[in-house]
Each structure stands twice: as C-alpha cells, then as structure tokens.
Amino acid sequence: MIGGSASRKLSWEIARELNCKFSQPEVKSFPDGELYVRIPDDLSGEEVIIVQSTPPPQNENLMELFLLLEAASEQGPKSLKAVVPYLAYARQDKIFKKGEALSLKLISSFIEEAGAEELVVVDIHERESLSYFSIPVKNVTAAPLLGKYFKGMGLKDPLFLGPDEKAAQQASRAAKELGASFDSLEKERITPELVVTSSKELRVKDRDAVIIDDIISTGGTIAEAAKILKKEGARRIFAACTHPVLSGNALEKMKAAGVEVVVGTNTIENSHSLVSVAPVIVEGLRQSVLL
Ligand code: R5P
Questions:
Q1: Partner of 53 for a Cys bridge, out of 85, 151, 165, 288, CB 3.0 to 4.6 A?
Q2: Tens-place pLDDT, residues 99-122
Q3: Which residues form the catalytic set?
C-alpha cells in the first residue's frame, strides 16, 4: 500500500484493514515547482495498491498520482491498482459545448498509461463515464455509511432529500439505513455558480431533513434545496455528501440557507470528513479481479 499526500490517513486505514505493508513515498517539489516522487521500497513481484485522491489542487494531486503509478510500474510489480477516492474532472465527462475538452477521457488515459491495471473510485459523478476506462473500474458508494452516521443523532422523523434527480438514489440508500423516507428535487444548472431548483411540496413540516449529494462544491445546490425545505417547514436541516470539496464561501452559503451541519467523507481529507470510506474501499479491493 502506497499512500499519496492527498490520502495519507485514509491509506493508513485501508492498509490496516487489509493487513498489508505500508510504504511512504518521498514527494517534494523542485525549486521551479515541478514534482519529484520516489518510492523507496522494492516493489518487484509485489501486489501494489496506490491510494491518492485528487481534490484541489487537482492538477498537483493528479500529477502525483501519475508519478506514483509510473514509479511503481517501473519496478515490475505483480499487479498495480489505483484507488482514487475523489476523481477530479469527473464532471467534465461530456462535451457540453462545441470546442470543449473531454477532460475525463484524457484523465482516464493518463491513469492507464501511467500503469494502473485496475481502479477503485467512490461515488463517481456519472456511472456511465467509467466507460472511458479500458481497465476494470469498481465504483463503490458511501451513501449507506453517510446514512449510518445520522443514526445516533436523534433526528425527528427524518427525510433524506436528493437535491436533484440524480441524487435520489443516494438519498434512498442513506434513508434505508434508518428506515426513513426519501425524496428528490429537480435542478437546473445555469452557470457553475448558479443553480435553479424547482419548488415542490415535501411533507417535511416539523420533521428533520438531510440533503444528500455526491459532491458539495460551491454549496449552491444544497443552499437552494435548504431554502425549499425551510419554506416547507422543516425543523432542522443537515447536509451530507461523499466529496466535501467546499470551494470558496460554500459553508457560509449553506449556513445562511439554514443548514446546521455539513457531513462529508474522507475521500477529501478536511475538517468535514466525518465518515471514513475505508470499509467500502476495502470491500471494492476484495472484489478485485486481479487478486
Ligand atoms: C451535480 O450534478 C452534482 O451532483 C452536485 O450536485 C454538484 O456538483 C454540486 O455542486 P455545487 O455545490 O457547486 O452546487
């Protein structure tokens, strides 16, 4: 197990659960800003797993992932797997406007070119986009773990709400852990910072609500959903997500809309990583076709 700098704690946890050796790579920057990576241990003939998430600064974290894969692959391991809990650029998985780069397609070819023979990701933005990869990819979900987190919080008749139709499945999976109900809204994104969510009768009066999504980036999606919940009379409002990107003033925006607490996972290691995805990653690795 080799832990990249964006997944230090998570890679330790996974190594502990798998009971495997842990290697700490040397990662530093040259004076001109270029990255230097070295894996000091002998990896020849070993089954190697590299864990490196790619949150902001995405480009640096991606480059570290590519260099770690290349450094490992140079040593002739028996197998080489990459665990990328948060895969950057996954939202640019289509050409939305003529002339755009198909970012995810390029990232997928870099990961393969660098030597990965298998990949594990967590709650990829669109399952279909995994077809850009020609290596086996396991997409595991954190939704039940997020649901479990809310179990002991004494929520009043909770409603799990997906802020758009795509998040309905996440809401349903989390709700199942508590035997709670779920619903979803309809959202249209106007610009990267602006979303418009259609109002809906939610039957949430005097109940607690958890808005759950794959990513919280600018917080706009959650804030819009929270405003609707408030209008519909929700008692307390919480937000949960797999990937707490939390850019700019996301937290302030959600708080102003009435969100009390933001619960994320450690696919991105920050002060909102309250749930560990180690168990589902371990499960994904155990189902590996290379083991
Ligand atoms: C979009 O479809 C995603 O599932 C999230 O809803 C979105 O990425 C959240 O972004 P933001 O926090 O910027 O509204």
A1: 85
A2: 999 999 999 999 999 999 999 999
A3: 187
